């Protein structure tokens, strides 16, 4: 789940150690947004109201988040955040978006009612992946350059704990019951399992080469880990914290998303400009969809009918009909270097107000 077309994920000091460990520096440098979380906020008050996608753009010195109205298929806002934004997560009520700014060692908090940054939170070096607990009280942020995860309280917007994990933590996801956090450690070829009660690592799972993207099934039974350098997906059973299947996908896979009904897993393949569709029942490849250049972010709309793909290489968003697996629209104007990974929060209600998404909790 990491990559941006022209933005480097390396910080001046911490990246040196990582670079010396790898001969394929071009790939590592390129895949700086693979850790990004691409968020779609659902709408449940207005009939036919649109979900909104918050997509970080990290190419060059852009340092923005694009807000896309999926139904109207257009960009409606651009928000300036920190340096090299790569990861995003949204609270269950859709009121706030947390953006990991990898090169400014911070997390920007966006108020979705105003689409303005309301707070900036210092975290560890190289913040990359972001995941919000189901109850909305905490945010877990993987810090790429110091092998840690920062825990943020949403009440105070401050870091309350720091957890040591494996080397080069990237993608991160939380189980639906909020009890466990799964963190892909790209340089260790492992996944750390964090107990959210104690904020300690309770298990370490060996997976494929350079794991980065992480997604969890809606029922919490399976974790899908995308292995960038082995071109496959490890399927983990949360009951045993063991790998139960390995599914080959395309070249340089990164972002992953699970459909709301849990039947399909979508994986963006940056090396071949496609999305692999995995059947969750058989753990086999069901389809391959050709999309834009460098599909750095994938996500499924809350109704499950559309797959949204952020194409970092051509600054577009592909809209795919999940019933036919065909691209039905291409949205221009995002970026440069849009990316993201699919983690969706559907508990809140969003409608338009003064040209911005506005939040109302559904009681």
- Class computed from helices, strands and strand pairing: mainly beta
Strand order of the biggest β-sheet: 28-27-26-25-29
Largest pleated sheet: 5 strands, mixed
Q: Overall pLDDT, averaged?
A: 83
What is the fold's blueprint, element by element?
Elements: H1 14-20, H2 25-30, E1 39-41, E2 52-57, E3 64-69, E4 74-80, E5 85-90, E6 96-101, E7 106-111, E8 116-122, E9 127-132, E10 138-143, E11 148-153, E12 158-164, E13 169-174, E14 180-185, E15 190-195, E16 200-206, E17 211-216, E18 222-227, E19 232-237, E20 242-248, E21 253-258, E22 264-269, E23 274-279, E24 284-290, E25 295-300, E26 306-311, E27 316-321, E28 326-331, E29 340-341, E30 348-353, E31 356-361
Parallel strand pairs: 25-29
Antiparallel strand pairs: 1-2, 2-3, 3-4, 5-6, 6-7, 7-8, 9-10, 10-11, 11-12, 13-14, 14-15, 15-16, 17-18, 18-19, 19-20, 21-22, 22-23, 23-24, 25-26, 26-27, 27-28, 30-31
Key terms for this structure?
mainly beta, Methylamine Dehydrogenase, Chain H, four-stranded antiparallel beta sheet, 363 residues, five-stranded mixed beta sheet, disordered C terminus, disordered N terminus, 31 strands
Q: What features would you describe in this structure?
A:
The protein is mainly β. It has a single domain, classed as YVTN repeat-like/Quinoprotein amine dehydrogenase (Methylamine Dehydrogenase, Chain H), CATH 2.130.10.10. 4% of the residues lie in helices and 51% in strands. It has two helices and 31 strands. The chain has helices spanning 14-20, 25-30, and strands spanning 39-41, 52-57, 64-69, 74-80, 85-90, 96-101, 106-111, 116-122, 127-132, 138-143, 148-153, 158-164, 169-174, 180-185, 190-195, 200-206, 211-216, 222-227, 232-237, 242-248, 253-258, 264-269, 274-279, 284-290, 295-300, 306-311, 316-321, 326-331, 340-341, 348-353, 356-361. A hairpin with a 4-residue loop joins strand 11 and strand 12. Mean pLDDT is 83; it is low at 1-37, 43-49 and 344-363.
